[in-house]
């Protein structure tokens, strides 16, 4: 179609109307918004109406109503553009044929400008922007059709009416991106980004202009503008990255790298979650950007984390391109996220996309729907292999959680899976984990709905026992081969895999139904024999003991039988030392293992009596004895964790304690001694007298031991207190010092401080400790540890206390009273800490939060409205709760203000008075008592700073109103001899001197309530000057009137 040659002077884009009736866009915006935005647009002078304007405006008007008609409207507008830009091919002319290209461009721009001031909340703005992008894309396609074949490799773009329109539009819109009005900046940036994402190609000069303009907007103060800017820059960065890959390194100027660097910086540091999420979805996925994109799985915003699993990772393609560690991290982060939607998205990714990648299913098409392949066991086994199930499938591993969601979300795999004899005879780490996870899911989920399914698919107990026996033998053989020769890497991996297989079979055995006596006997005999194998790994030993306990009767007799069987296995394990030593040495080792009190020695001390052994052989023998004793103690430890009866009533346990545990604690070998300590702690949980006797021993281990031993001793002491009660604190005063020392060991041993924090939190939440002084000391230490700079790097302490302190205070009113008791003492200690930092010239604000923030936290934790109260759910009911705790807080603050405390500290605590909740439902005696103290403070003018005075005035008025109501109620009750409160009478003034003092200090309620805590001293002076102009009667009525 030949282009029309213009016969008239070209119209400029200045022909833009001021009329608001031309398009619906203006009518939808508020008058104030339109007026302020129009002032920033510099709209040109209006020209007379014409038929082309009516046609273009009608199209834009209809485009605002619904997006369903956009394609039809784009065709209509394109016809008008062709009529203006091309010579007519037929005699029939449209109304637009009398206009040229410049006329059309001017009218098009005129309507586009009307969309710029539209607020973000107005839907017509979004629809108009989308229509503009659709029209430009449609017009470009039509122009290309008219041009015919175009060389795709050409260095220059062919000039068409639409390219000129696009250039003209961008030239006029780009200046609006720096407008003062935020909505104009938002709409102009949105339009530019939409044009970039709608078109396939843009002129190089325009490209650079767009890039520069959008780069300026990524630092805009409005998040909505930054979101639109990164949407456009994401496309530009992708195109530049493609160009970089196609060009030689010598021709590349590094601008793409600069753009990507800036966008990655925004991705990491922008405060708006919407901006980060937009970049996450729109940045090109490149080797350089991928790590930054994946780390958004740890973003603060839940929607951004969810976008990683629902949008980024599915768009990434085959997950097998990721490294093994990154796969495991992403799966663990997603499955254990605190937000349920993120967990669901991660589970859906695992069971719908990753399994399909392993099955060889092609990625989703343009409609976003991926074809679901039929169940495939090989794909499932490969998926488990790709997430390293040997390491992620252990206890507390993420593979169990992932497979739980897999079985729940893929019923086709539940029905498809079969466990035949071939499956059990050729077990691998992945296949046995499939069986174990399927068994756990069917038995624990769905309230027994899947029990029949697992009973149908899993073999009976006898078969499981035979399979377990077979793989235990394979495991022991592999371990012995590895011990006899220097194990190669492949040999070690095989041993680890065999151990994992046995562990999973034992997990299955823990859930089986042992009503079949033949199967139960077979399993019992197998495990009893297995437990006597010295080479058995620790985790397999632990699971074996658990299954043995499950096979034994749950009563006391069954527990005794269980203990006797386990201790027989311990004796068999220990006999391996005897079997390998000659006569005298064997006897000596046997006795030393029992460590009778008369000898008080260990196996290692007898080594000197075997001169026939070389030094190397003696060392091997000593190591062997230590390992066997460690093995025996580990079996005993596993047994004790499964025993709950009384120690003294079980002869087997008493014998074990005297012959194995006590000698181990006395051993000179540190590993034996430490494991013996754990066993002694477990025994102490079964007997109160034993716990009391050894309490000093555990404290000694804490004082003298290394970090790991200190943590163990703390855990033992805490368990003893939880089981046997807190009376041990009164009988052992040094026990409190142990916990205080541990809580204050942040700089020297942060791990010990973290363990002590968790331990003390459990004791306080469980109300194990009843002594008020002990409770107060521990709680004060926890509050100080939460805020002091020494714990700033100890995230375990901060996280534990971040949960504990609010939960402890809000759970019981007594806990809030306790917090109120220690709050000011803790604040004073933290004040001294902060003063010390200032003396050291440290960056105080970087190291520690402000004391005002700490005080606000203390007030919030003691807020009676937030405390749990049974039966009080409505907000109206919570507003009338008893507020004695804050009255006590106010009383303590007033005592501090009267005391000899630092002036700066007084300023901090005085400001807290204005934050306290004064409830009319509080005790009348406390209300009057605190009111008297406040009145005295007002009269004496003990505060000099404006903030403190305003806080004092505020609580004075609040209490005065309540006292006035109480007096009125008492006067209204007939037959009572009422006498007005003396403290109130004093505050209101009796003689002229008192009245003058009152006029100088008391202010009307209206001024007090609206006063900001940050007022300057000038504001305080103004308040006092206003008061002086009032007389005494007006003061009383203003302060204590109920109508205010």
| Net shape | flat
The biggest beta sheet reads: none
Q: Given the structure, what is the number of helices? A: 52
Q: Could you tell me how far the N terminus lies from the C terminus, measured between alpha carbons in angstroms?
A: 81 Å
- The percent of residues in helical segments reads 55-70%
Please give the radius of gyration in angstroms: 40 Å
| Beta strands, count | 0
Strand content of the residues, in percent? under 5%
Outline of the structure:
The protein has 1044 residues and is mainly alpha-helical. It is 68% helix and 0% strand.
Any overview of this molecule?
By secondary structure, the protein is mainly alpha-helical. 68% of the residues lie in helices and 0% in strands. It is built from 52 helices and no strands. Helix 32 runs parallel beside helix 34 (707-724) and helix 47 packs parallel to helix 51.
What would the keywords be for this entry?
mainly alpha, 52 helices, flat, disordered C terminus, 1044 residues, 68% helix
Per-chain topology:
Blueprint: H1 24-28, H2 31-41, H3 51-63, H4 70-85, H5 101-113, H6 123-147, H7 161-173, H8 182-198, H9 204-217, H10 223-246, H11 255-269, H12 273-282, H13 290-294, H14 302-316, H15 324-335, H16 340-359, H17 377-386, H18 389-392, H19 398-409, H20 411-416, H21 421-425, H22 429-444, H23 451-457, H24 461-484, H25 489-510, H26 517-531, H27 538-551, H28 556-580, H29 583-594, H30 615-640, H31 651-665, H32 670-686, H33 688-704, H34 707-724, H35 727-731, H36 734-743, H37 750-765, H38 772-787, H39 795-811, H40 813-839, H41 844-847, H42 851-861, H43 875-878, H44 884-898, H45 903-911, H46 924-940, H47 946-972, H48 982-988, H49 992-1001, H50 1005-1009, H51 1017-1028, H52 1032-1040
Helix pairs in contact: 3-4, 3-5, 4-5, 4-6, 5-7, 6-7, 6-8, 8-10, 9-10, 10-11, 10-12, 11-12, 12-14, 14-16, 15-16, 15-19, 16-17, 16-19, 17-22, 19-22, 22-25, 24-25, 24-26, 25-27, 26-27, 27-30, 28-29, 28-30, 28-31, 30-31, 30-32, 31-32, 32-33, 32-34, 33-34, 34-37, 36-38, 37-39, 38-39, 38-40, ...
């Amino acid at each position: 179609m030949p282009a029309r040659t213009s016969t008239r002077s070209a119209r400029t884009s200045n022909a833009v109307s001021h009329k608001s009736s031309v398009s619906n866009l203006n009518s939808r915006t508020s008058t104030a918004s339109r007026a302020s935005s129009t002032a920033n647009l510099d709209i040109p002078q209006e020209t007379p109406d014409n038929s082309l304007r009516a046609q273009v405006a009608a199209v834009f008007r209809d485009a605002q109503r619904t997006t369903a008609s956009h394609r039809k409207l784009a065709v209509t507008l394109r016809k008008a553009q062709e009529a203006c830009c091309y010579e007519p091919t037929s005699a029939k002319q449209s109304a637009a044929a009398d206009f040229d290209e410049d006329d059309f461009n001017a009218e098009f721009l005129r309507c586009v400008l009307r969309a710029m001031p539209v607020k973000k909340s107005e839907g017509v703005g979004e629809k108009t922007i989308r229509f503009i992008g659709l029209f430009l894309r449609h017009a470009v396609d039509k122009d290309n059709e008219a041009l015919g074949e175009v060389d795709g490799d050409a260095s220059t773009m062919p000039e068409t009416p639409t390219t000129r329109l696009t250039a003209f539009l961008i030239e006029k819109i780009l200046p609006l991106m720096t407008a003062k009005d935020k909505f104009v900046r938002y709409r102009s940036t949105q339009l530019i980004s939409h044009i970039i994402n709608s078109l396939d190609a843009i002129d190089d000069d325009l490209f650079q202009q767009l890039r520069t303009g959008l780069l300026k907007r990524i630092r805009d103060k409005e998040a909505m503008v930054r979101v639109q800017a990164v949407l456009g820059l994401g496309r530009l960065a992708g195109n530049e990255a493609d160009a970089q890959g196609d060009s030689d390194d010598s021709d590349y100027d590094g601008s793409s790298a600069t753009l990507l660097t800036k966008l990655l910086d925004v991705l990491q540091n922008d405060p708006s979650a919407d901006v980060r999420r937009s970049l996450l979805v729109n940045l090109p996925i490149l080797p350089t950007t991928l790590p930054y994109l994946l780390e958004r799985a740890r973003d603060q915003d839940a929607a951004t984390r969810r976008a990683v699993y629902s949008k980024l990772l599915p768009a990434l393609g085959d997950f097998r391109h990721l490294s093994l560690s990154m796969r495991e991290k992403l799966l663990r982060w997603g499955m254990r996220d605190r937000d349920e939607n993120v967990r669901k998205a991660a589970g859906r990714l695992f069971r719908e996309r990753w399994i399909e990648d392993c099955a060889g299913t092609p990625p989703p098409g343009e409609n976003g729907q991926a074809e679901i392949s039929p169940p495939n066991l090989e794909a499932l086994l490969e998926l488990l292999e790709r997430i390293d199930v040997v390491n992620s499938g252990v206890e507390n591993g993420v593979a169990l959680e992932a497979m739980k969601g897999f079985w729940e979300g893929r019923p086709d795999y539940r029905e498809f899976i079969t466990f035949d004899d071939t499956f059990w005879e050729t077990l691998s780490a992945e296949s046995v984990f499939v069986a174990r996870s399927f068994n756990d899911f069917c038995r624990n989920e769905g309230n027994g709905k899947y029990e029949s399914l697992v009973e149908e698919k899993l073999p009976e107990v006898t078969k499981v026992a035979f399979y377990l026996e077979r793989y235990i033998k394979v495991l022991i053989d592999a371990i012995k081969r590895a011990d006899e020769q220097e194990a190669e890497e492949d040999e070690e991996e095989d041993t680890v895999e065999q151990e994992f297989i046995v562990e999973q079979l034992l997990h299955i055995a823990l859930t089986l139904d042992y009503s079949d006596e033949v199967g139960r006997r077979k399993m019992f005999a197998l495990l009893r024999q297995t437990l006597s194998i010295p080479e058995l790994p620790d985790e397999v030993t632990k699971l074996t003991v658990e299954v043995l306990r499950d096979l034994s009767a749950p009563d006391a007799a069954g527990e005794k039988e269980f203990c006797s069987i386990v201790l027989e296995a311990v004796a068999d394990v220990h006999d391996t030392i005897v079997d390998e030593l000659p006569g005298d040495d064997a006897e000596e080792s046997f006795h030393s293992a029992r460590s009778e009190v008369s000898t008080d020695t260990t196996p290692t001390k007898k080594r000197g009596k075997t001169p026939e052994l070389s030094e190397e052989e003696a060392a091997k023998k000593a190591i062997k004895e230590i390992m066997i004793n460690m093995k025996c103690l580990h079996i005993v430890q596993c047994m004790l964790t499964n025993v709950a009866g009384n120690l003294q009533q079980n002869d087997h346990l008493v014998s074990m304690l005297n012959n194995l545990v006590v000698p181990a604690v006395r051993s000179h070998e540190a590993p034996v001694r430490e494991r013996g300590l754990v066993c002694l702690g477990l025994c102490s949980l079964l007997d109160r007298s034993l716990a009391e006797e050894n309490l000093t021993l555990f404290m000694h281990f804490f004082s003298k031991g290394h970090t790991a031993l200190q943590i163990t001793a703390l855990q033992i002491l805490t368990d003893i207190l939880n089981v046997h009660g807190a009376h041990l604190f009164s009988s052992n005063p040094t026990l409190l010092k142990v916990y205080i020392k541990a809580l204050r060991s942040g700089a020297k041993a942060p791990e010990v401080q973290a363990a002590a924090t968790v331990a003390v939190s459990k004791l306080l939440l469980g109300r194990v400790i009843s002594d008020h002084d002990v409770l107060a000391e521990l709680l004060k230490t926890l509050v100080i540890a939460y805020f002091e700079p020494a714990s700033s790097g100890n995230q375990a302490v901060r996280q534990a206390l971040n949960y504990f302190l609010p939960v402890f205070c809000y759970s019981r009113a007594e806990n809030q009273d306790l917090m109120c008791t220690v709050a000011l003492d803790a604040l004073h200690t933290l004040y001294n800490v902060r003063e010390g930092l200032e003396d050291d010239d440290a960056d105080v604000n970087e190291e520690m939060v402000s004391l005002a923030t700490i005080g606000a936290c203390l007030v919030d934790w003691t807020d009676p409205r937030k405390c749990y109260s049974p039966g009080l759910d409505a907000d109206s009911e919570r507003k009338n709760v008893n507020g004695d705790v804050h009255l006590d807080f106010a009383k303590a603050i007033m005592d501090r203000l009267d005391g000899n405390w630092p002036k700066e500290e007084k300023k901090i605590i005085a400001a807290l008075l204005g934050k306290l909740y004064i409830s009319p439902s509080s005790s009348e005696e406390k209300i009057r008592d605190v009111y008297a103290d406040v009145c005295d403070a007002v009269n004496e003018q003990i505060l000099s700073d404006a903030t403190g005075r305003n806080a004092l005035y505020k609580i004075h008025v609040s209490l005065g109103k309540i006292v006035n109501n109480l007096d009125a109620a008492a006067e209204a009750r007939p037959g009572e001899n009422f006498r007005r409160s003396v403290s109130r009478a004093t505050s209101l003034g009796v003689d002229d001197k008192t009245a003058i003092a009152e006029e100088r200090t008391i202010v009307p309620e209206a001024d007090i309530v609206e006063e900001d805590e940050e007022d300057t001293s000038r504001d305080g002076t103004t308040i006092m000057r206003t008061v002086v102009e009032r007389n005494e009667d007006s003061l009383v009525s203003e302060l204590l009137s109920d109508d205010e």
